[in-house]
């Protein structure tokens, strides 16, 4: 997760000044921070042995809709930055004769988008299983008298 954020923040957003002023960057930072505030607060309290049920529910439920939104925001930021990488040639490398191939960075970003969405499917599945393990199935059975 840290590597993913470093790539998006420093390689995609910071290297292109035109992308830094886009609204998607603000939305992406908001989603990252919202998820982290809830997750780190829950983890800190859990380490001390304090389990606050609303925070536990929020930690295991909020990430399910917000994680795909953050992936979409990352993907949109990458898509917005692609024309700038294509026109300026930032991070595109042409290697000398013995190797005789080049690395076109927009293609690397497009492959990263594919990996990002495939990884999102596995992470969402893991988030659902963690939620089920910590909170149960969510079915409340009523007593019959």
UniProtKB/TrEMBL annotation:
Keywords: Endoplasmic reticulum, Fatty acid biosynthesis, Fatty acid metabolism, Lipid biosynthesis, Lipid metabolism, Lyase, Membrane, Transmembrane, Transmembrane helix. It comes from the Eukaryota. One of its GO terms (cellular component) is endoplasmic reticulum membrane. It comes from Pluvianellus socialis. It is a multi-pass membrane protein. The lineage of its organism: Eukaryota, Metazoa, Chordata, Craniata, Vertebrata. Its EC number is 4.2.1.134. The chain crosses the membrane at residues 50-83, 103-124. One of its GO terms (biological process) is very long-chain fatty acid biosynthetic process. Catalyzes the third of the four reactions of the long-chain fatty acids elongation cycle. This endoplasmic reticulum-bound enzymatic process, allows the addition of two carbons to the chain of long- and very long-chain fatty acids/VLCFAs per cycle. This enzyme catalyzes the dehydration of the 3-hydroxyacyl-CoA intermediate into trans-2,3-enoyl-CoA, within each cycle of fatty acid elongation. Thereby, it participates to the production of VLCFAs of different chain lengths that are involved in multiple biological processes as precursors of membrane lipids and lipid mediators. Pathway: Lipid metabolism; fatty acid biosynthesis. One of its GO terms (molecular function) is very-long-chain (3R)-3-hydroxyacyl-CoA dehydratase activity. This is Very-long-chain (3R)-3-hydroxyacyl-CoA dehydratase. The keyword Oxidoreductase does not apply. It catalyses: (3R)-hydroxyhexadecanoyl-CoA = (2E)-hexadecenoyl-CoA + H2O; a very-long-chain (3R)-3-hydroxyacyl-CoA = a very-long-chain (2E)-enoyl-CoA + H2O. It is found in: Endoplasmic reticulum membrane; Membrane. Belongs to the very long-chain fatty acids dehydratase HACD family. It is an enzyme of class 4 (lyase). InterPro entries: Tyr_Pase-like_PTPLA.
